[in-house]
Amino acid sequence: MAEQTQGAVPLSAVIADAATGVALALRGEGDPYALSAVLRQSDALAPAAIRVLGADVLAPYAMDLPGAPAGGDDAEVVHQALTSFPPGADASEVSVWTYRGLVEASHTLLSASARDWPPPPDAATGWVDADPWPKLSHRVSQLAALALPGLAPGLAEQLTARTDDLARGFVRAVRRRDWLQAAGLGRWLARLPDAPESLGLDSGLAFVRHMGGDDPRVTLHVVAARRFYGRGW
Amino acid sequence: MTGGRGDPGLLDSMVHGSLGWLEESRDFFRLPPNVTTDADPNLTLKPLGELAELTQLIGVLHPRDEFRQTARGLFAFAWNETRDGELFAELIRGEPFATYPVELYGVFAQAGLRHAEADALVDTTTRLRGWRVAREDHTRTLGVLNAERRIGLRQHADSGAVLALTGLGGLPEPWALDRKAAYGVTHDVFHLTDWGRNRQRLSPELAGYLRLWLPSWLENWLEEQLWDLAGELLAVTACLPQAPYPAQAWQRLAGARAADGSVPEIGAAPSSGDRAEAFTACYHSTLVTAFAATLARIASDEAEAGRPAGDTAMAGGRTSCESETAP
């Protein structure tokens, strides 16, 4: 897929705008959230952006707040993304898991819609136990959108056994100034029950937000860690 | 991480290569005639002191006799360069309130190499109230305390209280360490444990903290090709009870060795052919490599023998001034 089409905004900008909209909603700011407002169905890049952001496009609906139920337009745009970009036979583990996360979130958070959601695809789990910690950390950070309450419970349980390794990945990512990786890992560590005390996860998340907050996806992960798991400030 | 058997073949080849290069480089460790006046101590006293510190340990503790012999030869050379300790008396007379002559003298004193006048001088200067004034660098203060222990002087401060003020004692967020702070942590461990001779001085809390975060730091500084710091972190790893053996990290450090056995401090060794430049760029990291590989070899032997952590494996290397930790 081309990153850019003639005369249009690049995909990265569409993703950034959507991430900003999600983060605002998670902070309880701005208008009531509607995915179809931050990613218009008419935008040719909307399905691709949804496919990249995965379950995070529905994250505001996971908040325990009254009102703002997901609208029919949201179901439409998500459905379009799921059907436009299903993971191919040679898709990476990250791609399959991201897709699966979005499918799971659609089942749960867009259940009111009359849509027929595809079944969650089988996603490999061998890497969770087998990867050396730097590689594991990189992959898990790319799956930050799955660190939502109730999502991918099996994966979360498997990752619990590797909490220390993910914490090591967080340390490495911060030292490398890889803020996106650090934010994604910090968000997962916020979800897991036993992040090591000496890591300083709360101040670490705040630090990452201040240092890397120019990237809306960094902000989104840090805000999600705060909103759903009460970590960071 | 649990204790792991190391790779004695690799570790020994690293000690062999490092000691060989250090032997070849003896002349660059020689002290110039102006050492107590206007020579740059960072290019004279510091390298010689580091040579003495680490070869003393290798000369006593390495399991292989041929390495002990080579290391002892280098240590004897270093003592000879101090003119059997006369240097320390001169340095102390020149700067009676400085700590570095005491720290350097302690390296030799722990091995029983004493100089009567230096002993008399430090006995006087370290009794002063002024000696007890807190210093800015707490890591360095731990080093001074260790030197006092080695020489048999009264400790001028409580080491536990000083440790609490250091980078290690404060248990900083592991992602908040820069290079300087990381060197501070490695030296906190070296001074606290007397360079790995008394590993049980690491509390379980500190050992747990290090065990958790050393892999991240190693990965970071190996990526940056800062071999010198990576070597120190490997030495700290080998100081842990039931020390883990990070095989990949050792292989990466081994890969940084030059054909002549030296290990550059950072990146690749200078290729200008200037031996003095090569010495400055390599001597510390090469020494550190030999030191770390010695500690790792000892830890590996312990894992092999299935000995529990913190036992008497290091007893042969303990200094005579360690009575406070003896049973």
Question: What is shown here, in short?
Answer:
With 233 residues, chain A is mostly helical.
Reconstruct the topology from this structure:
The complex is a heterodimer of chains A (233) and B (327).
Chain A: H1 11-26, H2 35-38, H3 46-53, H4 72-84, H5 93-109, H6 126-130, H7 133-142, H8 153-160, H9 163-175, H10 179-191, H11 201-212, H12 216-229
Chain B: H1 8-24, H2 26-29, H3 45-61, H4 65-81, H5 86-94, H6 100-109, H7 116-125, H8 138-151, H9 159-165, H10 179-192, H11 204-223, H12 227-238, H13 247-255, H14 275-305
Helix pairs in contact in B: 1-4, 1-14, 3-4, 3-14, 5-7, 6-8, 8-9, 8-10, 10-12, 11-12, 12-14
Strand content of chain A: under 5%
- Indicate the mean pLDDT of chain A: 92
Count of beta strands of chain B? 0
Which word captures the global form of chain A? globular
Major beta-sheet overview of chain A: none
Your description of this structure?
The complex is a heterodimer of chains A (233) and B (327). Chain A is mainly alpha-helical. Chain A has helices at residues 11-26, 35-38, 46-53, 72-84, 93-109, 126-130, 133-142, 153-160, 163-175, 179-191, 201-212, 216-229. Chain A is globular, with a radius of gyration of 17 Å. Chain B is mainly α. Chain B is built from 14 helices and no strands. The chains are: A mainly alpha (233), B mainly alpha (327). Chain A binds chain B through residues 133-134, 164, 167-172, 174-176, 182, 196, 198-200, 203-204, 207, and chain B through 171, 173-177, 209, 212-213, 215-217, 219-220, 223.
